[in-house]
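Late entry, written up from scratch paper. The run itself happened at the end of the previous shift, but nothing got recorded in the book at the time, so transcribing now.
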Amino acid sequence: MKEMKKANLIYAIKEGSLVYIDDVEKGLRCGCICPACGASLIAKKGNKVSHHFAHYSSEDCEKGYETSLHLLAKKILSETKEIMLPAVRIQLANVYIPMWNQGKIQIDYVELEKKNGEIIPDVIAYSGNKKLIIEIYVTHKVDEEKLKKIRASDISALEIDLSKFDRFITESELRNILVNSDSYKSWLYNSISEKYFKVFCSVSKRRWVSGYAGRIYYCPLARKTWYGKPYADFIDDCSCCEYLIEVETDDDYNTSILCLGRIASYVKNNLEKNLLYIINKKAIPNWKKI
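Output as recorded:
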């Protein structure tokens, strides 16, 4: 991957607003300052090199380009009032459970690099009574310490990875990424998927009752019944069932299974009926049996 030329700027601040290099006069007449350090800039608009800003009386600062992207993202989101979010999915063992497809949400307003609790997000977007943290990755990913604080805040956080671009990003390109595409985006943390991950872990787990065959009560497919109570034998039923996610044994040698069928039952009773399916395998079979 080529190193991105972050020192050169194509956006700067003029009279409190973000401006593009082609929209200002050449040289010091541009009247612009660096978005990061506030130093005076000169607009270099020759014929040999792509137009860009440079610091007039000092070396170009390292954060100028990245800060300009934060400002540009805020400008775009404030104008469009919407953002495309990537799909949300939950992973249990080797099974991926999609919760929602990609889709747009409406934005009321946006704040830039404003402290929120113990963290300072690149961007915070507000939608109704909810917050969305947006981290723009150009040179440094969110580290474990900041991610831990994001999780503790229980605010959904989206990362936009622009590190793979080996050139400057235009406003139209960033606008398309933010508003129309789920490319370059991933969830650092999603409060809704975190909630349902805990729920699914709980509802899917069934204890293996002692016995030769490994009896497991409350089988959603009711393979067998005992005085009206549905159950399944692990050896006869669960071991070959397509709903089996994983077998777990704790430190006390108690054995349990994670049952996808129980998740499906929960989803049908508590969420949209067509919400759940398996990405890396196939659709959950036999919905009507549950």
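Residues 64-80 form the longest helix (17 residues).
(Scratch paper discarded after transcription.)
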